Structures are given as C-alpha cells and as structure tokens.
Amino acid sequence: DVFDTIVNRYAYLEFSNGKYAYQPYQKTLLDKINTNCKTWMSRVNRSSTTDPFGQNYAFTSKNMSNIYKYILDMARGYATPGSDYYKNEKLRDDIIYCLDFMYSKFYGGTKNKLPSGSNWHDSYINSPGSLTRILLALRDDLSISQMKHYMDWMDKLIYSPSYASANMIDMTFAIILASALEKDGTRLQKAVSTLSGEVFD
After folding, report:
1. Which tens digits make up the pLDDT trace of 140-175?
2. Which of 85, 91, 122, 144 could tie 61 with a disulfide, CB 3.0–4.6 Å?
3. Minimal CA–CA distance to 124: which of 80, 168, 176?
4. Alpha carbon of 84 to those of 18, 41, 60, 110: distances in Å?
C-alpha cells in the first residue's frame, strides 16, 4: 500500500539495500557506520539516571537532540545491510532501552518534559528527524502501537507542518515518515498538501 511504499523508499534512502556494499564509496560509508555504532553501543549504561550513555548530560534541548543522533548512529548499524551490526539482537535491545529512557526522561508521555527555554529547532525538527529514522530502522521489530507510543509527544508537537521554507521541509520529512509508520492517511495528506501549497509548485 502507499504507506509501505513510502516506508520502503525512506529505508532505501537511509539504509541502502546492500547492493553496492563492495563498491569503494559504499565501503567508506559502512566503515563510518560501523565505527559510530560501535562507539555508542559500547557506551550504553543501564544504571545511568541522566542519559542512556552515562555521560551526565544536562537536561537541555541540545543534549536531547544529540542523544537521539547517537541512538540513530546505532540504528544505522542495525538496519544497514553490510554493516558489522546488521540485525544484531543485542544492539536492537540497546536501541529499545535508549528509546525507553528518552521517552521517560525527555520526549514522551502525556505532559511536556521539555527543558525550559528549549530551542524549538531541537524539539520540532532535530529530535523528530532522528526519532522517526530510528523507528524506521526498527520497523520489523515494533508494532504500529509501539511506534505510536514512542512518537506520542512528537505527534502532539508537530502533527502537521508549520514554519516556512527549509524548516517546513525538514519538519515535513519527519511528519510524512511518522504518518507512514503509523498508517495515518489524514496526517499524510495534510503534510503533502501543505508542502505543495506553501513550498513547492
């Protein structure tokens, strides 16, 4: 269906399909994916109370979006064919642990946990952009209801596009992927209509 078509296209753009894994340029990308994945996987700290990596990060919006980027580094290792960590079960469990931590600490639930004075770009664009890609990597491991759970606060913040030009495009990139993962046709159509009406001819 249209949702699967969108999800598969995003997955191809984000994680490739391994077809060119032995080409020199792809080897360079895989080496980087492996290095970044290994770095953050080795730092997962399940006893930490400040962040999932035990780095004593302060409760700021910048740190929130950075942590999601680090989790995305792990997710790329998990979802990219040809990586050393492709479909590694321990890595999958570590990613889900990190998502649960971030949900409870930063970016989930029924009330706003965002730091006071948050940078809107972190909350509305950076974090959603990483979060939706992480869930894309785990699309075969999570149900739709689980993905909705992790995105519930994001969905409250940016159910439909706002801002203008490049910021709107970046926001809508995450909204369209979230809509496809959640199979929300109303939201998907609203996002596409907004882009075609306000940014693209």
Report:
1. 999 999 999 999 989 988 999 989 889 999 999 999
2. 122
3. 168
4. 12, 12, 33, 38
